[in-house]
């Protein structure tokens, strides 16, 4: 049975759940955190009209929420317009029966986090990076970054982590470009770029 996640275009506050940092979690000077873990459960969830739940929201669901938060009155009006267009993309996905997916990840530090996104290529047992900044994201990474195989003392680990953080930063920037777009065509193009940079 499908669960429901409530997605809104105007919400005050943050919906991203936080977890303890792993070694090398956030790049110095940024608010972006990249943590690693193994996917324990994947289940479909359904987009609805308001916001609820404690999972981190990624993909279009998270952007619909972010489009309506904070800023001046003019920014809020512009954000609400952008959020409505993003909401239209979500509606189109629902019409095409493209469900959102909730991934429950056990992080290397033993805690768990749930991320809801429109990625459909991540399965139970995958080693993933959980990226949390202004927006959330999840992507498949090398198994050497997870659990018993993860060794932060090995030279390859920090190099791989830095590469993963760079990809996370590019994804974060692409999501912001979606939020900055103000026409349906611009949002669709930015969304295509976001998917190319955020999904592995």
Give an account of the 3D structure:
The chain is an alpha/beta fold and 200 residues long. It has one domain (3-198). Helices cover 36% and strands 24% of the residues. It has helices at 59-66, 73-95, 156-180, 184-198; strands at 3-6, 33-48, 56-57, 100-107, 112-117, 127-132, 136-140. Strands 1, 2, 3, 4, 5, 6 and 7 form a seven-stranded mixed sheet that branches. Helix 1 (59-66) runs antiparallel to helix 2 (73-95) and helix 3 (156-180) packs antiparallel against helix 4 (184-198).
What descriptors fit this protein?
single chain; 200 residues; alpha/beta; 7-stranded mixed sheet; 36% helix
Strand % is 15-25%
What overall form do the CA principal axes indicate?
A: globular
Share of helix, binned: 25-40%
Flag low-confidence runs: 4-29, 70-81
Sketch the topology as an H/E string, one letter per element: EEEHHEEEEHH
Q: What is the end-to-end distance? A: 27 Å
Short description:
The chain has 200 residues and is α/β, with parallel strands linked by helices.
Fold topology:
Blueprint: E1 3-6, E2 33-48, E3 56-57, H1 59-66, H2 73-95, E4 100-107, E5 112-117, E6 127-132, E7 136-140, H3 156-180, H4 184-198
Parallel strand pairs: 1-2, 3-5
Antiparallel strand pairs: 2-4, 2-6, 4-5, 6-7
């Amino acid at each position: 049975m499908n669960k429901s996640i409530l997605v809104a275009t105007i919400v005050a506050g943050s919906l991203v759940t936080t977890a303890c940092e792993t070694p090398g979690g956030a790049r110095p000077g940024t608010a972006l955190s990249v943590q690693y873990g193994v996917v324990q459960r994947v289940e479909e969830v359904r987009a609805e009209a308001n916001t609820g739940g404690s999972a981190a929201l990624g993909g279009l669901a998270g952007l619909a929420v972010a489009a309506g938060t904070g800023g001046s009155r003019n920014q809020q009006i512009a954000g609400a317009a952008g959020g409505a267009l993003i909401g239209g993309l979500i509606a189109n996905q629902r019409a095409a029966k493209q469900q959102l997916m909730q991934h429950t990840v056990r992080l290397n530090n033993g805690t768990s986090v749930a991320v809801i996104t429109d990625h459909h290529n991540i399965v139970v047992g995958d080693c993933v990076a959980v990226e949390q900044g202004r927006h959330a994201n999840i992507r498949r990474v090398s198994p050497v970054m997870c659990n018993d195989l993860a060794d932060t003392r090995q030279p390859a680990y920090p190099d791989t982590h830095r590469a993963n953080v760079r990809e996370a930063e590019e994804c974060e920037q692409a999501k912001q470009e979606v939020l900055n777009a103000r026409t349906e065509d611009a949002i669709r193009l930015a969304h295509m770029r976001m998917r190319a940079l955020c999904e592995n």
